Q: What sequence folds into this?
Protein backbone atom coordinates (compact mmCIF):
# COMPACT_ATOMS: atom_id res chain seq x y z
CA UNK A 1 0.00 0.00 0.00
CA UNK A 2 2.86 2.40 0.84
CA UNK A 3 4.51 1.74 -2.54
CA UNK A 4 1.20 2.36 -4.36
CA UNK A 5 0.74 5.67 -2.48
CA UNK A 6 4.33 6.67 -3.29
CA UNK A 7 3.87 5.91 -7.02
CA UNK A 8 0.52 7.77 -7.07
CA UNK A 9 2.15 10.78 -5.39
CA UNK A 10 4.95 10.75 -7.98
CA UNK A 11 2.48 10.60 -10.88
CA UNK A 12 0.36 13.38 -9.37
CA UNK A 13 3.44 15.59 -8.82
CA UNK A 14 4.68 14.96 -12.38
CA UNK A 15 1.22 15.77 -13.76
CA UNK A 16 1.03 18.96 -11.69
CA UNK A 17 4.48 20.02 -12.95
CA UNK A 18 3.45 19.23 -16.53
CA UNK A 19 0.22 21.17 -15.97
CA UNK A 20 2.19 24.17 -14.66
CA UNK A 21 4.48 24.08 -17.70
CA UNK A 22 1.44 23.81 -19.99
CA UNK A 23 -0.03 26.90 -18.32
CA UNK A 24 3.26 28.77 -18.78
CA UNK A 25 3.49 28.00 -22.51
CA UNK A 26 -0.20 28.63 -23.23
CA UNK A 27 0.15 32.43 -23.73
CA UNK A 28 2.91 31.80 -26.31
CA UNK A 29 0.91 29.37 -28.46
CA UNK A 30 -0.01 30.39 -31.97
CA UNK A 31 1.43 31.72 -35.19
CA UNK A 32 3.38 34.95 -34.77
CA UNK A 33 4.49 37.37 -37.47
CA UNK A 34 7.76 39.27 -37.16
CA UNK A 35 7.08 43.01 -37.19
CA UNK A 36 8.74 46.39 -36.99
CA UNK A 37 7.46 48.71 -34.29
CA UNK A 38 7.22 52.29 -35.59
CA UNK A 39 6.33 55.43 -33.68
CA UNK A 40 4.28 57.79 -35.82
CA UNK A 41 4.59 61.61 -35.77
CA UNK A 42 1.51 61.83 -33.53
CA UNK A 43 3.18 59.53 -30.98
CA UNK A 44 1.02 56.50 -31.80
CA UNK A 45 2.69 53.14 -32.33
CA UNK A 46 2.08 51.02 -35.42
CA UNK A 47 3.51 47.72 -36.63
CA UNK A 48 4.68 46.67 -40.08
CA UNK A 49 4.67 42.91 -40.59
CA UNK A 50 7.33 41.04 -42.52
CA UNK A 51 7.15 37.65 -44.19
CA UNK A 52 8.68 35.82 -41.24
CA UNK A 53 6.45 33.64 -39.04
CA UNK A 54 7.00 31.58 -35.91
CA UNK A 55 4.57 28.83 -34.93
CA UNK A 56 4.68 27.70 -31.29
CA UNK A 57 2.70 24.53 -30.60
CA UNK A 58 1.23 22.94 -27.47
CA UNK A 59 3.73 20.07 -27.73
CA UNK A 60 6.48 22.67 -27.13
CA UNK A 61 7.78 22.72 -30.69
CA UNK A 62 8.46 25.79 -32.78
CA UNK A 63 8.95 26.40 -36.47
CA UNK A 64 10.17 29.58 -38.15
CA UNK A 65 8.97 30.15 -41.71
CA UNK A 66 9.97 32.79 -44.21
CA UNK A 67 8.30 34.01 -47.36
CA UNK A 68 9.93 35.56 -50.41
CA UNK A 69 8.22 37.25 -53.34
CA UNK A 70 9.40 35.69 -56.58
CA UNK A 71 8.59 37.09 -60.03
CA UNK A 72 7.50 34.60 -62.68
CA UNK A 73 6.28 34.72 -66.28
CA UNK A 74 3.98 32.32 -68.12
CA UNK A 75 5.88 33.10 -71.32
CA UNK A 76 8.71 35.44 -72.40
CA UNK A 77 6.17 37.96 -73.72
CA UNK A 78 3.90 37.85 -70.66
CA UNK A 79 3.94 40.44 -67.91
CA UNK A 80 5.78 39.28 -64.79
CA UNK A 81 3.58 38.32 -61.85
CA UNK A 82 4.63 37.81 -58.27
CA UNK A 83 4.21 34.65 -56.27
CA UNK A 84 5.22 34.07 -52.65
CA UNK A 85 7.59 31.20 -52.01
CA UNK A 86 7.53 30.05 -48.34
CA UNK A 87 9.85 27.68 -46.51
CA UNK A 88 10.87 26.65 -42.99
CA UNK A 89 14.16 28.24 -41.93
CA UNK A 90 14.56 26.40 -38.64
CA UNK A 91 12.74 24.30 -36.07
CA UNK A 92 13.21 23.00 -32.60
CA UNK A 93 11.93 22.51 -29.07
CA UNK A 94 10.99 24.99 -26.36
CA UNK A 95 11.60 24.62 -22.63
CA UNK A 96 9.85 27.14 -20.43
CA UNK A 97 12.13 28.56 -17.78
CA UNK A 98 11.31 31.50 -15.58
CA UNK A 99 8.04 33.40 -15.79
CA UNK A 100 9.41 35.61 -18.57
CA UNK A 101 11.98 33.38 -20.22
CA UNK A 102 12.35 30.23 -22.24
CA UNK A 103 14.96 28.26 -24.14
CA UNK A 104 14.79 27.42 -27.84
CA UNK A 105 16.73 24.32 -28.83
CA UNK A 106 17.48 24.73 -32.53
CA UNK A 107 17.27 21.14 -33.73
CA UNK A 108 17.64 21.96 -37.42
CA UNK A 109 18.53 25.22 -39.15
CA UNK A 110 18.06 24.87 -42.89
CA UNK A 111 19.91 28.06 -43.86
CA UNK A 112 22.89 27.88 -41.50
CA UNK A 113 24.05 24.40 -40.48
CA UNK A 114 26.38 25.89 -37.86
CA UNK A 115 23.26 26.68 -35.81
CA UNK A 116 22.09 23.05 -35.72
CA UNK A 117 21.83 21.67 -32.18
CA UNK A 118 22.38 25.05 -30.54
CA UNK A 119 20.49 26.77 -27.74
CA UNK A 120 19.02 30.27 -27.55
CA UNK A 121 17.95 31.81 -24.25
CA UNK A 122 15.05 34.20 -24.73
CA UNK A 123 13.35 36.77 -22.54
CA UNK A 124 9.81 37.75 -23.40
CA UNK A 125 7.03 40.07 -22.36
CA UNK A 126 3.64 40.90 -23.76
CA UNK A 127 2.41 44.37 -24.62
CA UNK A 128 0.54 45.72 -21.59
CA UNK A 129 -2.51 46.67 -23.68
CA UNK A 130 -2.48 43.81 -26.17
CA UNK A 131 -1.41 40.21 -25.35
CA UNK A 132 -1.13 39.53 -29.09
CA UNK A 133 2.00 41.67 -29.27
CA UNK A 134 5.09 39.85 -28.01
CA UNK A 135 8.48 41.40 -27.31
CA UNK A 136 11.40 38.95 -27.50
CA UNK A 137 15.04 39.47 -26.60
CA UNK A 138 17.89 37.04 -27.09
CA UNK A 139 21.65 37.20 -26.79
CA UNK A 140 23.85 35.57 -29.40
CA UNK A 141 27.14 36.24 -27.60
CA UNK A 142 26.52 34.81 -24.17
CA UNK A 143 26.76 37.25 -21.27
CA UNK A 144 27.55 40.50 -23.08
CA UNK A 145 24.72 42.83 -22.04
CA UNK A 146 25.16 45.01 -25.13
CA UNK A 147 24.53 42.26 -27.69
CA UNK A 148 20.87 41.54 -26.89
CA UNK A 149 18.70 41.50 -30.02
CA UNK A 150 15.15 42.80 -29.64
CA UNK A 151 12.25 41.65 -31.78
CA UNK A 152 8.51 42.31 -31.97
CA UNK A 153 6.05 39.59 -32.95
CA UNK A 154 2.31 39.94 -33.64
CA UNK A 155 0.05 36.93 -33.08
CA UNK A 156 -1.82 36.29 -36.34
CA UNK A 157 -3.37 32.94 -35.42
CA UNK A 158 -4.04 31.74 -31.88
CA UNK A 159 -3.90 28.02 -30.98
CA UNK A 160 -6.30 26.73 -28.37
CA UNK A 161 -8.47 28.92 -26.17
A:
Amino acid sequence: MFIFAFILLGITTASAQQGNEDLKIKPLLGVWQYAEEITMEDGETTYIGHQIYKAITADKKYYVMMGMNMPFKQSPEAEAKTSTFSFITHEGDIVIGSENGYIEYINKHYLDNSLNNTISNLKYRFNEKNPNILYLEYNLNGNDDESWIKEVWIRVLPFGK
